[in-house]
Amino acid sequence: MNKIGKYEFDDSVQADSKINALGTTTTELGDVVPSHNHIIVRLGYIVLEQGEYNESGEQTKAPILSDKYHVDVLWKGLEPVDAEAEVLSYVEPSGWEANRIELDNNGVHSFMGLDYQEYKF
Fold first, then answer.
1. pLDDT higher than threshold 90 for residue 41
2. Is 3:80 a contact under the CB 8 Å cutoff?
């Protein structure tokens, strides 16, 4: 089952620590690559309020950025908590739930047109 999670972290170091804990492997060329099949998009410090610019393109008001580092994950191939349950439920890997955020829209990013509201945790 595929599910979408949206997360925020204090910074990129905290996010990378969680991401790397999902599993990595080293290629013959020495590159470190994921050993899982989840799709992770590092959004960074997202824009909460757009900046303003004059007709010359000069900034007249700076954009307002989030003070949290954002990551979206398309969790692929999750196993249900109880395969015998009438309604199946899923959980993300250990420790991710504490950083999950809830949105009432699709946010600033989506996965291949998948509706976050339909696939969210």
1. yes
2. no
